[in-house]
Design brief:
This protein is of the alpha+beta class and about 220 residues long. The protein has 9 helices and 5 strands; from the N terminus they run E-E-E-H-E-E-H-H-H-H-H-H-H-H. The chain folds into 3 domains: about 60 residues, OB fold (Dihydrolipoamide Acetyltransferase, E2P), CATH 2.40.50; about 60 residues, 5' to 3' exonuclease, C-terminal subdomain (DNA polymerase, domain 1, Orthogonal Bundle); about 55 residues, Helicase, Ruva Protein, domain 3. Helix 7 packs across helix 9.
């Protein structure tokens, strides 16, 4: 299993990138969001990868963070969602947006991805809603730097780090952990945190907890 690719970009396109790794070129399929964030041709890059194996086909799909790769794994577990449909969803919403949409049951947000109809969007939300809290909770630990490491004998290029996941991923994970420790169920806690994060995307952990607790408080 090829889990990570680090090398020099030889070619970029809207949906894939060709990366040279010690003289071997790997075509890695990516979302439009990821493609736009990658360095220029001739510069170093690194992507976490998922290898799709079929009888007549081998394809690599790339992700800038382990968090996004985990969402890809879950999305492709839904019937009707293949690797390219998953990239379309992640490219439209981003990993944090996917987590918020699923936690809130917002299938209309998932439907905005190209090629995703209403029934398929509803199926994604229905099948993954109970799993979303686990991924959101892992967000902090999965938000890791994937700065490219180039071997001495690779083509010369200035190492460049791919963009890290915003700090809000860690804040959401910490807020969710705090709420579950207070006794709230994972699904309701995840929905409250997702709603708070949607309102204040750059909020720190403490602010997310306060906002989520406010939404969870009994209404008169």
């Amino acid at each position: 299993m090829i889990g990570r690719i680090a090398g020099v970009i030889l070619h970029r396109a809207a949906d894939h990138v060709l990366i040279d790794v010690r003289g071997v070129g790997y075509i890695v399929h990516v979302s439009e969001r990821t493609a736009a964030s990658l360095p220029r041709v001739g510069e170093a890059a690194a992507l976490y990868t998922d290898l799709l194996v079929r009888e007549d086909l081998l394809q690599l799909f790339g992700f800038p963070t382990l968090l996004e790769k985990e969402w890809h794994r879950l999305l492709t577990s839904v019937q009707g969602i293949g690797a390219k449909a998953s990239l379309a969803i992640l490219g439209t919403l981003g990993p944090e947006g996917v987590g918020r949409a699923i936690a809130l049951g917002d299938w209309s947000a998932v439907r905005k991805a190209p090629g995703i109809g209403p029934k398929l969007a509803q199926r994604v939300v229905l099948e993954l809603k109970d799993k979303a809290p686990q991924v959101i909770a892992m967000g902090g630990s999965l938000t890791v730097d994937v700065g490219a490491v180039i071997e001495d004998d690779a083509p010369a290029a200035a190492p460049r780090k791919t963009p890290a996941v915003p700090r809000s991923a860690a804040a959401s994970a910490e807020a969710l952990s705090a709420l579950t420790n207070l006794g709230y169920g994972p699904s309701e806690a995840a929905a409250a945190v997702a709603e708070a994060a949607a309102t204040e995307p750059d909020a720190a952990t403490a602010a997310l907890i306060r906002a989520a607790l406010k939404s969870l408080a009994p209404k008169d």
